[in-house]
Amino acid sequence: MEKHSYVGKTKEEAIEKATIDLQELKENLIITVKEEKKSLLNKKVEIEVIEKRDLRAFIKSELQDLLYTMGYKVEIEMQMKEEMPIYRIYSNNDALLIGKNGKNLEALSYVLKQIVYNQIGAKYSFILDVSDYREKNDQHIAALAKKIARDVARTKVEVKMDSMNSYQRRIVHQTLSNNKYVYTKSEGEDPNRCVVVKPREE
To answer: How many CB atoms neighbour CB 184 within 10 A?
Structure first.
């Protein structure tokens, strides 16, 4: 993964140099300020730039190497969904790779995100899936949220859902964000943090 350095009197000037040199839009770049000097006589900003497409290829390569080291034979497909990279893994042992309630998949995702953070010095969002496990699980969580919302709207009694990770809680919040009759709130501390579905006041 190639990293590019640019210097300007301002951050904006350095970014402009990067977009012209790389022939890329700003939104397709990951930009980190490496050095900033401001004085009466000298103004200088140095940025480090990584193209997102290069980072996405790096993630796929690191994922393949990681799984190979763990003894898996895999094929990996990468697709974009609403500007979110999704890496779909097809392996010789999907059940083991997923783990109970997706624990192994979550651990793999955490390790890979740490590798990316160490490389670019910032968080970068992406999703790992095994076959279509996460997609089906997401659909199940969304369907459950809608069912609970109907019950809460009917009974006017709030419901505390089982503990979930931040990704799963976000699915619930997004699913019910425009509901006229209920609203959601996360409560508790990780790993026991959960979503509470509450009735709206009429």
So the answer is: 21
Asked whether 102 and 95 are in contact (CB, 8 A), the reply is no
What the block records as the tokens of 112 is 């890979």
DSSP the chain: ---EEEEESSHHHHHHHHHHHHT--GGGEEEEEEEEEE-SS-EEEEEEEEEHHHHHHHHHHHHHHHHHHTT--EEEEEEEETTEEEEEEEES-HHHHH-GGGHHHHHHHHHHHHHHHHHHSS----EEEETTHHHHHHHHHHHHHHHHHHHHHHH---EEEEE--HHHHHHHHHHTTT-SSEEEEEES-TTS-EEEEEEPP-
Q: Tell me what the mean pLDDT of segment 89-112 comes to.
A: 92
pTM above the 0.85 mark?
no
Give the pLDDT band of residue 25 (cuts 50, 70, 90): very high
- Residue labelled with tokens 């199940």: 140
Among 34, 37, 58, residue whose Cα is nearest residue 48: 34
